[in-house]
Design goal:
The complex is a heterodimer of chains A (about 325) and B (about 475). Chain A has strands spanning about 5-10, 20-25, 30-35, 40-45, 50-55, 65-70, 75-80, 85-90, 95-100, 105-110, 120-125, 130-135, 140-145, 150-155, 165-170, 170-180, 185-190, 195-200, 205-210, 215-225, 240-245, 255-260, 265-270, 275-280, 290-300, 305-310, 320-325, 330-335. Chain A has about 325 residues and is mainly β. Chain A has a single domain (about 5-335), classed as Methylamine Dehydrogenase, Chain H, CATH 2.130.10. Chain B starts with 6 loop residues before the first helix and ends in an 18-residue tail after the last helix. Chain B is globular and about 85 Å long. Chain B has helices at about 5-10, 20-25, 65-70, 80-85, 90-105, 120-130, 135-150, 160-180, 195-210, 220-235, 250-255, 275-285, 325-335, 375-385, 420-430, 440-450, 460-465, and strands at about 40, 50, 55-60, 115-120, 155, 190, 240-245, 260-265, 270, 275, 315, 345, 355-360, 365-370, 395, 435. A 5-stranded mixed β-sheet of chain B has the order 6-15-14-13-12, with helices on both faces. Chain B has a 4-stranded parallel β-sheet with strand order 5-4-7-10, sandwiched between helices. In chain B, strands 1-2-3 form a 3-stranded antiparallel β-sheet, with no helix packed on it. Chain B is of the alpha/beta class.
Chain lengths: ~325, ~475
C-alpha cells in the first residue's frame, strides 16, 4: 500500500442513518440525505465544511439517493415514499420544482444523464423509469423498463452518451439504450453471485465497475463491433465482458462503488464499516486482463455500515463517505 | 410462469409470480370444528390429512381463493393468474361442451347449456394473420369450427362495439357540456381496456376514476346482449346460457370476472369464460385442425332479422376500436356544428402517443389524444392529476400499439419478430371488410328502440354502463417484501 486516507472532517447534523453523499459538478457543494427525510447541502467556509441548506418537507419517508444535474442547477432526490423530488437552485435558494410519481413503491436510486435532458429512477417495483426533461421544466415519462426480475438498487448513466446501467437484487446488471420508438435493454451483465448494489463507469465509459453482496468488485470492458480481439457482437451491439474480479478486502457486502474520473482510482464502501481504494497497475494486456491493487484499506472508517462513497469531481483525492452511524466524513487521499 | 397480462398490470405487482398458497394475504374463513386437533400429515401428492386422537383420518380441504377475492384485494393479483388458468380457459369450455354431450346422451335436454361464442375483431385478425386467411374467411371458418365442437351460436362483438362507440360519443358530449360546473367531467378517459381500468383502480383510485368513461367495453356490452336480450329471445334465463368471448387480451379475463358483471339473481356472469386468440390456436391444435381447412359457415345474428348471410364488418379508427375517431367526429358535428370527414393524427413523443385537434371558427378547438402503453398512460395520469391535461378526450390502451398487439394474441413463429407479426395483424384487420358507421346501423337502431326502450333509459344505463371502484392499498406487514 502506497496511500492512506486522512480524515479531513466529520460532518454531523443528520439525525438518522445517512444513505447518500453527492458532490455537485463543480465540486464545491456536497449534498447528503438519509433516514431523517432531509437533504443537507454542505459547503466550505474558510477551512471547514458547514451545512449551508437544510431541505425538508418534500418526502414522507427515507430519502435514499441524490443526483446533481450536469449543470449543477438541479438536484434530484429518490425516496422510499415512491416519489422523486427535483430541486432547482436557479433562484439562489433550493426550491422543490417537481415531484415525479409513478413508481409503485420505494425509489432506490436516481441518476441524471450527461446531456441533462434525461433522468433515470429505479425502485423496489423492479422497474427502471426514464424521464425526459421538457423545455418548460416538466418531467415526462419516456419509458418504463421492466427487465429486472427483482428490486433495482442503482442506476448510473454513461459519462458521454445516453447509455444507462442498472443493477439489481436479481444479481445482474442491465444496460439500456434508445431504440426506434422506445428504450430497450441492450445487454445483461451476469457474474456476481448475489445482489449487485452499485455500478459506475470509468472516465471514458468503456468500462464499468460493479460491486455487490458477494463482497467482490468486477470490472467489465466493452467490445465494440469489429473489435481487434474478434469477440462476436450479435445485433451489432457492443458486448461487455468481465475482465477482472477483485475480492478479499471486504468482509461484508459492498454497498457503493465510485470510479474517480481524475485519478482512475476506485473507492468502495461496505457493511464491514471499512472503505477501500483500488488503483490499476500496469500489465501487458491492460485492456483484456487488467490488474488492480489495493491502495488503501481503511478499517473502522465509520462506526457502522458505510452506505455511500463519492470522489470529488474537481479536487483530486477528496472523498466523502456516509454511514448508518449518522455521520458523513470527508477524507483526503495521501501518498505515504 | 411467464405473465400474459399487459404491461400496466404487470407493474402493479402482477409479475411477482406468487401463488395463493405461498404469500396470499387474503383472509380466508376457516370452519373450526370443536374438539382437540390431532396431527396433520402431508401426503406425497401434497394434500393434507388430519389424524385425530382416535386415529381416524380426514382429508383436509384446501383454502380456495377465487378470482373475485383476488380482484378485490390489493395484496397481489398474481395469484389471479393461476386461478384464471383454471376458471377461464379453453379447458373450461371443453368441460362445458362435454357436460352438454353427456346431458344429451342421458336425454336431459333441460340441463344442457346454450353455448354462445362471441369473437372480437382483433382476435379474428390475429387468427387471420396466423393462418394467412382473409377476415371474412376467418370469421366463417371459426364459426364452423366452434359449431363442430358443439357451440350453438357464434357472434361478432362488432355489434357490441357499435353500442360502446355510440355511448362513448354521447357521454363525451354530455361531459363536455357539464365541464363548466363539474371539474372531473373532462378529460374523459376511455374505458374499453381492462388493463388500464385495473391499474387505475389499484393505484390511482379516487382522483382518476371520475374521469373514466362509464361506457361498458364491447365485451361487456356483448355480455348484456347475450345474457339479457338474446336469452329473452330464446325464452331462457341468463344462467341457461354459457357465454364465451374470444379476445386479444388476457386482462379481459379479469374484466369478465368483475362483480359488476355478475347477476346475483341468476348466479351467472355476463361473460362466463374468456379465451384468447392464442388459446383458440391451442384448441385448433388439440383438434388436429388447421383453420384453413375448415369449411365456411356464416356468422349468427343476435336479432331475428331475415338477412340470409350476416355481413362481416368493422369500424373506422384503428385496431383498438376507434373511440377517438368516433368521438372526435361526433363532437365536431354536435359541439362545433362542423362535419369532419377525416381526422389528422399527429404523432407526439412516440407512435403510441398521438393527438387530433378539431376546430371551427369562433369556437375553442377540441383536443383528443391516443395514449397506448404504460409510459404514455403515466404521462396522461400525471397531467390529469396536476390539472395540466390539455386534452378533452383520451383513448387509453395498456398495450403498446393497442389491442391488435394484445397479450392474448398468437405469438409469431419462426424468424418473425413480435413487431412484424403485429404489423401483419394490423394490416389484415380492416382489409376487405366493410367499415360501418355505428350511428347508421339498422340492427343497432332496432335494439335501442325495441330492447332498451330508447337511448337514455334506465334499461339502457343498466345494460350499457358500468362503474369503477377504488381499491384501498393493503398495509399488511406480510405484504412488505424487501
Amino acid at each position: 500500500m502506497h496511500h492512506s486516507l486522512k480524515e479531513v472532517q466529520q460532518l454531523t447534523g443528520h439525525t438518522d442513518q445517512v444513505w447518500c453523499v453527492a458532490w455537485s459538478p463543480s465540486g464545491s457543494l456536497l449534498a447528503s440525505c438519509g433516514g431523517d427525510k432531509t437533504i443537507r447541502i454542505w459547503g466550505k467556509e474558510d477551512k471547514s465544511w458547514v451545512c449551508k441548506s437544510l431541505l425538508t418537507d418534500a418526502h414522507t419517508r427515507t430519502i435514499r439517493a441524490l443526483s446533481w444535474s450536469p449543470c449543477g442547477q438541479y438536484l434530484a432526490a429518490a425516496s422510499f415514499d415512491a416519489t422523486t423530488s427535483i430541486w432547482s437552485r436557479k433562484s439562489g435558494e433550493f426550491e422543490c420544482l417537481a415531484t415525479l410519481e409513478g413508481h409503485e413503491n420505494e425509489v432506490k436510486c436516481v441518476g441524471w444523464a450527461c446531456t441533462g435532458n434525461l433522468l433515470a429512477t429505479c425502485a423496489r417495483d423492479k422497474s427502471v423509469w426514464i424521464w425526459e426533461v421538457t423545455a418548460d421544466e416538466e418531467f415526462e415519462c419516456a419509458s418504463v423498463l421492466s427487465t429486472h426480475t427483482q428490486d433495482v438498487k442503482c442506476v448510473k448513466w454513461h459519462p458521454a452518451c445516453e447509455l444507462l446501467a442498472s443493477c439489481s437484487y436479481d444479481d445482474t446488471i442491465r444496460l439500456y439504450h434508445e431504440a426506434s420508438d422506445d428504450w430497450e435493454s441492450c445487454a445483461m451483465l451476469k457474474g456476481h453471485s448475489s445482489t449487485v448494489w452499485s455500478v459506475d463507469f470509468n472516465k471514458d465509459g468503456h468500462r464499468i465497475v460493479s460491486a455487490g453482496a458477494d463482497a467482490s468488485l468486477k470490472i467489465w470492458q466493452d467490445y465494440e463491433p469489429g473489435n481487434p480481439e474478434g469477440i462476436a457482437t450479435p445485433d451489432n451491439l457492443p458486448v461487455w465482458k468481465c475482465v477482472c474480479t477483485i475480492g478479499g478486502h471486504h468482509e461484508r457486502p459492498i454497498y457503493s462503488v465510485n470510479w474517480c474520473s481524475l485519478s482512475g482510482m476506485i473507492a468502495t464502501a461496505s457493511g464491514d464499516d471499512s472503505l477501500c481504494v483500488y488503483q490499476e497497475i500496469s500489465t501487458e494486456d491492460a485492456r483484456n486482463a487488467p490488474k488492480f491493487e489495493i491502495a488503501v484499506r481503511q478499517k473502522a472508517a465509520h462506526l457502522e455500515d458505510i452506505n455511500c462513497v463519492s470522489w470529488n469531481p474537481v479536487q483530486k483525492g477528496l472523498l466523502a463517505s456516509c454511514s448508518d452511524d449518522g455521520n458523513i466524513k470527508i477524507w483526503q487521499l495521501q501518498k505515504e | 410462469m411467464a405473465s400474459h397480462f399487459s404491461g400496466a398490470l404487470q407493474l402493479t405487482d402482477l409479475d411477482d409470480f406468487i401463488t395463493p398458497s405461498q404469500e396470499c394475504i387474503k383472509p380466508v374463513k376457516i370452519e373450526r370444528k370443536p374438539g382437540k386437533v390431532g396431527k396433520i400429515r402431508i401426503e406425497d401428492d401434497g394434500s393434507y390429512t388430519e389424524i385425530d386422537q382416535t386415529g381416524s383420518e380426514t382429508r383436509l380441504e384446501k383454502a380456495k381463493i377465487t378470482l373475485n377475492d383476488c380482484l378485490a384485494c390489493s395484496g397481489c393479483i398474481t395469484s389471479a393468474e393461476s386461478v384464471l388458468i383454471t376458471q377461464q380457459s379453453q379447458d373450461e369450455l371443453y368441460r362445458i361442451l362435454d357436460e352438454n354431450r353427456q346431458h344429451a346422451q342421458a336425454g336431459n335436454q333441460g340441463m344442457m347449456k346454450e353455448i354462445v361464442v362471441s369473437i372480437s375483431p382483433q382476435a379474428r385478425a390475429s387468427l387471420a394473420a396466423a393462418f394467412k386467411l382473409s377476415i371474412v374467411a376467418t370469421a366463417h371458418k371459426l364459426t364452423a369450427f366452434f359449431k363442430r365442437l358443439g357451440v350453438h351460436h357464434v357472434f361478432d362483438t362488432n355489434l357490441a362495439r357499435s353500442f360502446s362507440l355510440i355511448e362513448t360519443c354521447h357521454e363525451f358530449v354530455r361531459r363536455y357540456q357539464a365541464s363548466e360546473v363539474d371539474k372531473t367531467s373532462l378529460p374523459m378517459l376511455t374505458s374499453a381496456c381492462p388493463g388500464w381500468i385495473c391499474y387505475a383502480e389499484k393505484t390511482h383510485g379516487s382522483y382518476i376514476l371520475p374521469y373514466i368513461s362509464s361506457t361498458k367495453s364491447p365485451q361487456q356490452v356483448m355480455g348484456s346482449l347475450v345474457k339479457h336480450y338474446f336469452a329473452q329471445r330464446l325464452g331462457k334465463t341468463p344462467d341457461a346460457i354459457y357465454h364465451v368471448s374470444v379476445m386479444p387480451c388476457f386482462d379481459k379475463k379479469l374484466e369478465a370476472s368483475r362483480t359488476d358483471f355478475f347477476s346475483d339473481i341468476y348466479q351467472t356472469r355476463d361473460v362466463d369464460c374468456v379465451i384468447t386468440s392464442a388459446e383458440v390456436e391451442k384448441m385448433l391444435e388439440k383438434e388436429g385442425t388447421s383453420l384453413s381447412s375448415v369449411e365456411d359457415h356464416p356468422l349468427d345474428t343476435i336479432t331475428p332479422d331475415n338477412q340470409s348471410e350476416k355481413l362481416v364488418y368493422s369500424h373506422a379508427g384503428g385496431g383498438s376500436g376507434g373511440y377517438l375517431e368516433h368521438a372526435a367526429k361526433f363532437a365536431a358535428s354536435i359541439l362545433l356544428q362542423t362535419q369532419v370527414d377525416s381526422l389528422s393524427y399527429k404523432v407526439l413523443r412516440n407512435q403510441d402517443f398521438q393527438e387530433v385537434t378539431v376546430s371551427a371558427e369562433g369556437k375553442p378547438p377540441l383536443k383528443f389524444a391516443l395514449a397506448y402503453g404504460f409510459r404514455n398512460i403515466q404521462n396522461i395520469v400525471q397531467r390529469v392529476k396536476r390539472g395540466k391535461c390539455t386534452y378533452q378526450f383520451v383513448e387509453i390502451m395498456a398495450c403498446p400499439s393497442g389491442c391488435n398487439n394484445g397479450g392474448g394474441q398468437i405469438r409469431p413463429d419462426g424468424d418473425e419478430t413480435q413487431k412484424e407479426r403485429y404489423q401483419t395483424v394490423e394490416n389484415v384487420y380492416n382489409r376487405e371488410v366493410e367499415v360501418v358507421d355505428p350511428f347508421h346501423q339498422q340492427e343497432v337502431e332496432s335494439l335501442y328502440r325495441d330492447w332498451l326502450g330508447g337511448r337514455d333509459t334506465d334499461k339502457a344505463r343498466e345494460m350499457l354502463r358500468t362503474q369503477y371502484h377504488e381499491i384501498e392499498k393493503s398495509t399488511s406487514a406480510l405484504n412488505i417484501k424487501w
